[in-house]
TrEMBL record:
It catalyses: IMP + L-aspartate + GTP = N(6)-(1,2-dicarboxyethyl)-AMP + GDP + phosphate + 2 H(+). Its EC number is 6.3.4.4. This is Adenylosuccinate synthetase. The lineage of its organism: Bacteria, Bacillati, Actinomycetota, Actinomycetes, Micromonosporales. Substrate binds at T299, T300, T301, G302, R303, E304, R305. IMP binds at D13, E14, G15, K16, N38, A39, G40, H41, T129, R143, Q224, T239, R303. Pathway: Purine metabolism; AMP biosynthesis via de novo pathway; AMP from IMP: step 1/2. Binds 1 Mg(2+) ion per subunit.
């Protein structure tokens, strides 16, 4: 079988980890292709165990799938090793992990710069996690980045780090009055990481090409989501990589002709973490309800997520941009008990109704949602497994989402557990 892309259709936290876990036993490879440990996937196994994954692909919990961290990911080796150790302690087989030698490393100066720059921006801050993701990608683009393969050559590692610190230490010390990064201590620290990571480093592109040639299934797992894409999201309030479907090709080395299915995950409402425009954001009791019932707190940061009604303009944009073939709607159960459930079907900008994403950042900041209200439902839907099990008003809600996005809804999540889903169409044959 060819490759499948799984991505988020909103601002992240849509439940992609659950969907990856749902598919994990039926795919041969699960590949993480973008982002770093600024992302978080929560997976709950059938026996109720909860796993919070940050760098490891969600397929790590599948017993047989190979798990791959692609070249498009930036890796903090300390975080990755802690995650590997944590999974191993809980009986998860981590020997199946392979990491691209071309993946870039997050270094101490990246974390230091991320934190100090964010503080310096004050009220204009982006809302980063402070984990060095943006600065690491910045060095990658500037061609002064350090890659995992450099850990295997101490001379190259020292030379590249020395070159980088000539500039970074000047900025930290002279501009921000912060302590400079020690070259020798950093080299020693990262060479220790090298000893443990060496067995996992591989030429992952060729590995995936060979798998596709054998007819095996490769699942490409995105972190963050469409509206956080560097090029296509709500810039500058975005991540530093491309979590969209096009980014899967670049971040894993998969040719676009190999991809025949794109699965997008969206909550039945909308959330985002950090700063940036959010047309349907709620500041009332409804927003508090979504946050409380949906347990809307960041997997990685623990920050409260901003909550709002489902935005069909954003979802439709994501479906068109990514060529989505199947839409998965999660957390429908969170809407239970609301007398009315609004859906944003368009925006009003300067008195003019628009139905598509505005071109400019200014217009999007000033967009006022145009809502269509649907009747809610009171029945417990967590035991629903077929469409007929859902209350009529819940079925109407899903049908309207499908119509507005012009994309079929294949799965509806009705609870956090792996089995708590309504399947409308098979995601895999």
């Amino acid at each position: 079988m060819p490759a499948i892309v799984l991505l988020g259709a909103q601002w992240g936290d849509e439940g992609k980890g659950k969907v990856t876990d749902l598919l994990g036993e039926r795919v041969d490879y699960v590949v993480r292709y973008s982002g770093g440990n600024n992302a978080g996937h929560t997976v709950i196994t059938p026996d109720g165990q909860k796993y919070a994954l940050h760098l490891m692909p969600s397929g790590a919990l599948s017993p047989d799938a190979m798990i791959v961290i692609g070249n498009g990911v930036v890796v903090d080796p300390k975080v990755l090793l802690a995650e590997i150790d944590g999974l191993a302690e809980r009986g998860v087989d981590v020997s199946r992990l392979r990491i691209s030698g071309d993946a870039h490393l997050i270094m101490p100066h990246h974390r230091a710069l991320d934190r100090v720059i964010e503080r310096y921006l004050g009220s204009s801050r982006i809302g980063t996690t402070g984990r060095g993701i943006g600065p690491a990608y910045g060095d990658k683009v500037a061609r002064i980045g350090i890659r995992l393969q450099d850990l295997l050559d101490p001379g190259i590692l020292r030379k590249k780090l020395e070159l980088a610190l000539r500039e970074k230490n000047q900025i930290l010390f002279k501009v921000y009055n912060r302590k400079a990064i020690d070259l020798e201590a950093t080299v020693e620290e990262y060479l220790e990481y090298a000893e443990r990571l060496k067995p996992y480093i591989a030429e992952t592109r060729a590995m995936l090409w060979d798998a596709l040639d054998r007819g095996e299934t490769v699942l490409l797992e995105g972190a963050q989501a469409t509206m956080l894409d560097m090029d296509h999201g709500t810039y500058p309030f975005v991540t530093s990589s491309n979590p969209t479907a096009g980014g899967a090709c670049v971040g894993a080395g998969i040719p676009p002709t190999a991809i025949n299915k794109v699965i997008a995950v969206s909550k039945a409402y909308t959330t985002r973490v950090g700063a940036g425009p959010f047309p349907t954001e709620l500041f009332d009791a409804n927003g508090d309800h979504l946050r409380k019932i949906g347990a809307e707190y960041g997997t990685t940061t623990g920050r409260e997520r901003r909550c709002g009604w489902f935005d069909a303009v954003v979802a439709r944009y994501a479906c068109r941009l990514n060529g989505v073939t199947d839409l998965v709607i999660t957390k429908l159960d969170v809407l239970t008990g609301l007398p009315k459930v609004p859906i944003c079907v368009g925006y009003e900008i300067n008195g003019v109704r628009v139905d598509d994403m505005p071109m400019s950042q200014t217009d999007f900041h000033h967009a006022k949602p145009v809502f269509e209200e649907l009747d809610g439902w009171w029945e417990d839907i967590t035991k629903a497994r077929t469409l007929d099990d859902l209350p009529e008003n819940a079925r109407r809600y899903i049908a309207r989402v499908e119509e507005l996005c012009n994309t079929r809804v294949s799965v509806v999540g009705v609870g956090p557990g792996r089995e708590e889903n309504v399947h409308l169409h098979p995601l895999l044959p």
